[in-house]
Amino acid sequence: MSDEMYAKLAQAVIDGEPEDAEQLAKEALEQGLDALTCVNEGLTKGIQKVGELFANGEYFLPELIIGAEAMKKALAVLEPAMLGDQSREVVGRVVLGTVEGDMHEIGKTLVGTMLVANGFQVFDIGVDKSAGEFIAAIQENNADIVGASALLTTTMLQQKKLIEALKESNLRDKVKVMVGGAPVTETFATEIGADGYAEDAISAVDLAFRLVDAPA
Predict the structure, then answer these.
(1) Beta-ladder partners of 95
(2) What domains, with CATH codes, occur in the chain?
(3) Helix H or strand E encompassing 124
(4) How far apart are CA 44 and CA 65, in angstroms?
(5) Whole-angstrom Cα distance, residue 85 to residue 79?
(6) CB-count exposure of residue 63 (10 Å: 0-12, 13-18, 19+)
(7) Residues 118, 101, 160, 200, CA torsion sign
(8) Is the CB of residue 18 less than 8 Å from the CB of residue 47?
(9) pLDDT for 2-29, tens place per residue?
(10) Is the pTM of this model over 0.90?
(11) Any idea what DSSP says for residue 99?
(12) Cα separation, 4 vs 46, whole angstroms
């Protein structure tokens, strides 16, 4: 019975059916299924499949967006149950945002969704955020990691400005910096002094685990 529910949850994400995913999540909790297992065995497997289909050229941006939306809808139902379980330890606290001058958020949202699914507490501050706004969120939430996304070559330098601002605020030693976005490269990340670069949501989760020195 539980395996069937996990498969249905995964399929709702793959098919991009937010309402179905939300309803299935409610049914799973009513059946007494473990919320975290529903995420790991259902939603995460679904979004990973969506990512594979996108990488293979079988899915395009609309399918990617609606798949992420389906996962978010189900997570909204499951997250309170997960957080209410005292045995579920938060792996780390992550502030996510898109840098100043950049309005793109699809990649950032996917990363946030995957991080939550893997046990991280995520504070998504949105798009077009200044270094000062990142720093305020880091301080307010006592973040372990900050993730800064840039989807334009013209906004990439804002990632460098964020790292400089962290140094000026004496926060650089207290928070790990991960960067990403279409024009960003491993070389650029190293040049600006970031702690890591992730090219997609899956690698961002792996990187986050490494940065907090926790087993994935």
Answers:
(1) 123, 146
(2) 2-83 (1.10.1240.10), 93-211 (3.40.50.280)
(3) strand 121-124
(4) 15
(5) 10
(6) middle
(7) positive
(8) no
(9) 999 999 999 999 999 999 999 999 999 9
(10) no
(11) B
(12) 13
